[in-house]
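Worked example 3. Consider a protein that binds iron/sulfur cluster.
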Amino acid sequence: MATDKPLTKNIEEGRAPFNFKKYTAAGGYESVHKVVKMEPTDAVELVKNAGLGGRGGAGFNTGLKWSFVPPPDGGPRYLVINADEMEPGTFKDRLLIENDPHLLIEGMITTCFALQSNCGYIFLRGEYTDCEERLLKAIKEAYDNGMLGKNVAGKKGFDLDIYLHTSAGRYICGEETALLNALEGKRANPRAKPPFPQVSGLWGRPTVVNNVETICNIPGIVTHGVEWYQALGKGDYVGTRISGVSGRVNKPGCWEVPVGITFRELLEDYAGGMQDGYELKAFLPGGGSTDFLIPEHLDLPMDPGLVQKAGSRLGTSLIMVLDDKTCPVGCIRNLIKFFAHESCGWCTPCRDGLPWVEHILNNMEEGKGSLKDIEILDEMTRYMGPGNTFCALAPGAVEPLQSGLKYFMGEFEAHINHGCSYN
Amino acid sequence: MVKITVDGKVLEVDENNNLLEEVLSQGEDLPYFCWHPSMGSVGSCRQCAVIEYANDEDERGRLNMACMTSPREGGRYSIEKAGQFRAQAIESIMINHPHDCPVCEEGGECHLQDMTVMSGHTYRRYEGKKKTHTNQYLGPFINHEMNRCITCYRCVRYYNDYAGGTDFGPQASHDNTYFGRWQEGPLESEFSGNLAEVCPTGVFTDKPFGKQYVRKWDLQTAPSICTGCSVGCNTNPGERYGTLRRVVNRFNDEVNGYFLCDRGRFGTGYVNSDERITVSMTRASSDADPHLASPDEAMSQLHVMAVDAIGIGSPRASMEANFALRDLVGKDNFYAGVSANDLAMGQQILDIYRNRPVNVASIKVIEGSDAVIVLGEDVTNTAARIALALRQSVKNLGKKMARDMKLPDWHDAAVRQLTMDRKSPLFILSPHATRLDDVAANVHISSAEESARIGFAIANAIDSSAPAVKGLSKEEKSLVDTMADALKNAQQPLVVCGTGSFSPALIDAAANIATALQDGDKKANLAMVVPEANSLGLALLMNGSDQSLDQAMSLVADGDAKSAVVLENDLYRRAPADAVDSFVNALDNLAVLDSTQTRTGEAANLVIAAGTFAESSGTFINYEARAQHFYSVFKPKDSIRASVKWLSDQKLSEITAACASSITDCGGMANLTPGEDFNVAGMKVPRQQHRYSGRTAMRADINVHEPKQEQDEDGILSYSMEGVPATRDATVFNTAWSGGWNSNQSVFKFQSHTGGALKQASHGQCLIENNSKTKTWNEIEKDNAPEGDFAVFPLYHLFGSEELTARTPAIQEKATSAYIALNGDDAQKLGLQASDGVALEHNGSVPFIIRSSIKPGTVGVPVGLEGVNFRNLPDGIALEKASSWTAPEKWHAANIIASDRASSEGEA
Ligand SMILES: Cc1cc2nc3c(=O)[nH]c(=O)nc-3n(C[C@H](O)[C@H](O)[C@H](O)COP(=O)(O)O)c2cc1C
Ligand code: SF4
Ligand code: SF4
Ligand code: SF4
Ligand code: FES
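Given these inputs, the predicted complex is written out as structure tokens:
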């Protein structure tokens, strides 16, 4: 019987990841053998029908994204894996790579066949040194066992090389076009879209950028088919995903969960609820660049559309819990400080706007704020809104602030008069 | 064209351009920073925001950057509704800006000041500290004040992406982004000065100007032409208190566009030099003591002497000055002032321009070419603006790729991304590596003779009726085929050559290639570089006569002439020194009109204080045979006069007209200005801006009575602030200024379309009209192999090779004294150590450098640098290690191209 945990079935706490042999024995690389017997365009269609949404944060249908790649013209085309994972509070890709590197490689091979690409890159967060070591080992094993290199899996004419690149370390390198620039050795500034990477990406060639987790879903889908995949979700939702919780809960961590469970299920059933003496005040549903939700949203299914209706984004679906003993203003200030520092410096609102916001929040923490500052903060969230900046970093960066102003105005005002009263 | 609505106004605009460009073209004001008409859009500054509505019902719209928007048919936009956002963008830019306008060189012509005012941001709300940065020393030309930076990325987009610089770039990130070199040191690009005009604030400013700074509005300015080389870039020099303060670009869509080279921008300091001849001097004989001659005395002596004198003209003097001298001494007694070979090459080029089925290429045409071959001309150093244009030409393949993908041309970063390093072909044949090698498809190191043979063979490969070449090696044959194919397949092929190699055969070869490429209506573009600002004009003026300096010399040697009048010419740069010595010694009378003292002047018994370009008006003819008028910028003191004024008492316009009517092909010279009677509202056009300050005070220490305004009888400009300024009428575009647009960005207000031709001003007049469709060929002439161990080829230096600019302090800081360049193996064979000198026939000893690109058995000798006279050398020479030798102080290894360096370091 096919597993109901396709992403984590090989993961066991405290055990080293499977090597090639064990991974294969556990059913690994099945999807490669299967896909090479298919027409590449059929494989794209299959993934499209599965309804898999990208796990990098935007949730765009993966197969659909692949279908925008123009037909082969004889030149190179690339698959690039986004393993930059620098979103605050997000640590799911690390789990997957550290504990089952072959799953990502299998996913990449299968995807490259579908995209008719002979070259894949993994862009890995620099601090993930264990991931690096394990990936390098797994890649070598894949070459040694005919899964990479010439005639992959014995399929004549299907040649594939995979390269690992470790990032020099900027949050913006996770933005797919900045990532491509960084990979080319250029400054990590984003590119304007259109043209989209599928058309003019790495070195000006058709390129698909996918998140680690997205691609880890591919082996299961290709091996076991659409119906199986869709049945994994709760109710009408399809598939599983890695969700997690950080903050003052009893069991912080991340788990493979059926898509469609509610925030409450995640928080209580998986993370064991709040620690004694702490109450849930609010939470960021999917990383540091999403809007706060509050306890009344706990029973929402973790669905991008519903979360958006509630005023936030599902993002990476790793939630950050804000408890009643932690200062929301300080929390927001901390996030803004990160984002201001990580602004790539390309466009004006983000580069010069975020440090201003940070300055105001610093003042507030010290009781040096004014009512005028709150007006400015409010204005800044709109100034850096979607479409106003060159990429999505700044609009994301101000999301906690804009929702913070909505939910915690009293706290902001208190800060103006007295500074921070938390410790 | 599509119809759009902007704030209710219906506009018809070109959908192939971006909305910002189109809106500006319609005369609307829309602030911007990062966009530049020559560099396209990247959307970083977010200043040009507009609201775009999805349809008629849409009330809210979406904020978009106009520079990143293609206007669409029926599109509805609002500039007004995005006003608040634009003000916010300025406000946040200004957070770290020092507001040091009062002491900032950009003040008063600052795009940031203008945009700040235009956006309506007036009140500072940010209360924190400002960021500060450390500045860098960037060489003699450019000052660096990083605190003023607003992070628009224009500098790097210009310096690196446009001009090909590699020693500069953005560093660090977020609000700490820094623009500079990787370490302190002179900027390497030959075009660094444009940073001062591209940067919208005072980060990069003109350093020599900073040392003698005045505000823009206090400058007296007039349209001028750069005299640095034969390209004839259009400039607006500015003067105050009798000193020339700076030169800025004057837009001409067909010539220099928005950019100058550093020789042109920074090379006019000689105008203010101590070496200037400020009074005329006379002496009875060449060993008597000179004494001062009043202007009247000088004038009468000159005219008495001229009665039986020969006249020697000059390629650096205007058409009118040369023509006036010709008139004064009589046409039969007028000699060209360049060697027989130089004159012949000039006339050879004219013949090609006149009779071959080719299209003479302007800079704009060069930029549009999609396959280029450069034969033996080191354009970076002899006609720098052409090199910058060639750098743009290689981008045409990328533009085509973009068009095929429906990606607009202006989408700069995306076009570059799509193109990566694919380039339209540029082929270079040269005896040494050049600064364009990095964008060349193929660099073939070969002597002028070898290059000529290859050139002839390319012509033959394109059109078999062109003469064939025998005895090519297999390697050469395949090279010939590659180049011939690429040129033949191009839509707009271009051939670049010139007199730089001193090789008539090479010029013939270039002409053959261009001729071969003609196919029905399709004509190849051809650019022939000549040495000086008016070299081609002088060749025209000779009107078929072959009276060169060589002939003048033999005439004098034969005793057939006893007096000579030399116009703005140092003959020691034209002929071997001993020949010039004999010439001047054989003369009874030598009059020299010049602005600075020269060796020729030292031998004269009448030296006449002539004005520089800045104190003269007239016409220069550039390498394309384009005639361009230049106006004097200011009136020098009475003892200094424009050469033409010493030589003739006619009005300038009369001389121009006489020249135009009596010299073949010069007719177009007559129409370059609106005529001296032209006026705007009954007045001349002022050289001084309406804000020019201190008119009544600037001479008050001398006399409280304001003197009568200086008159300029030669043209339509007055030395005054009265009248209708060029800001209303660009007929005489002496400064870029428009209400609310105080910086050079205001030029778009004078253009018929943003980036296009100026509405009223002339581009100059191309004199030679050529509708030829008949192919004629030159036969390859067999050159005799030069005698001597080493074949000599010339090396040029943008900084140092040109006579007048080399007298400018900032240029001297970049220049080197003479040296020779050798291949490493030859240096070893000669037993040379790094600190040794080399004895050069007829020239004393010089230091040497090793350039790995140079072929064994050849030696590069610089032209025009202090310490060696190229004209003294035969084609082949012997070299040996100099005994007892110390390196001169002013020598430093310059002009070593990266590729030369890499391999020579590899060897060490
Ligand atoms: C500022 C910024 C940072 C991002 N960081 C990441 C990241 O670390 N990992 C990631 O997979 N996607 C990240 N993204 C999203 C990517 O741009 C892109 O949407 C994603 O890699 C697409 O993959 P998917 O379709 O598989 O989700 C980031 C986006 C932005 C705007
Ligand atoms: S919003 Fe602008 S400055 Fe910020 S990261 Fe994106 S491109 Fe860079
Ligand atoms: S750059 Fe412009 S705005 Fe800034 S100090 Fe200078 S003049 Fe003022
Ligand atoms: S130095 Fe000037 S051109 Fe460069 S980014 Fe700063 S303001 Fe723009
Ligand atoms: S000019 Fe349009 S974004 Fe800078």
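Take a moment to read the result before moving on. Residues 790-907 of chain B form a domain with the Barwin-like endoglucanases fold (CATH 2.40.40.20). Chain B touches chain A through 41 residues (CB under 8 Å).
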